[in-house]
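Note on ligand handling. Small-molecule inputs were canonicalized before submission; formal charges were left as drawn, and no protonation-state enumeration was performed. Where a ligand contained multiple stereocentres, the stereochemistry in the source SMILES was retained. For zinc ion, this procedure yielded the string shown in the input block below.
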Amino acid sequence: MAPSLHPALNNGITKGNPNHPGGTLHCHCPSNRVTVTLSSNVAHNHACGCSKCWKPNNSLFAIVGVIPVDKLSVSSNASKLRIIDESAAIQRYACKDCGVHMYGRIAVEHPFKGLDFVHTELSGEAGWQEPQFAGFVSSIIEGGFPPNEMDGVRRRFRELGLETYDCLSPPLMDLIATAAAQKAGRLPAKL
Ligand SMILES: N[C@@H](CCC(=O)N[C@@H](CSCO)C(=O)NCC(=O)O)C(=O)O
Ligand SMILES: [Zn+2]
Ligand SMILES: [Zn+2]
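Structure output:
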């Protein structure tokens, strides 16, 4: 079966509820599930083609958003969580039994430090912010996707109403570049 973009994308995008209050994510274990409680909606939800983000079976993209770390708590079976790659900028905490990434936390100095990366599909509920853009689209080639079929992927995203980028969205990339300029003293700390 041809790989799909993602279950939340394949049949069109359902707009979320701007006042979504949050909810509880759970891993895919049949019992003793890891649960993570989010006390607000996410922001910057996006499709991510990178090789580091967790994707559901047979999906080419992850759907991942961010939430302030103080609005995330591991509510059960925290002992089942393992960091996938301690050296990565985003340390992803995955269930050791089912492999699902429950949250990603930035451990290094980074403009997004203080924001956790989460997959809201793990709540089983609707209403979360809908994907705002497709990022790291070319990165699916690193996962083995045929380069000569990339036009069809980008066209599908545009049909869905999402812009495609091979990094993050322009506002987020500008934010990262601004932080780099401030760190290098080329921009004032307060703009
Ligand atoms: N081509 C690489 C890109 C990996 C990458 O840079 N991923 C981004 C976005 S992940 C969520 O949007 C990132 O911030 N990575 C930091 C990290 O994952 O530690 C690839 O595909 O691997
Ligand atoms: Zn699990
Ligand atoms: Zn990613």
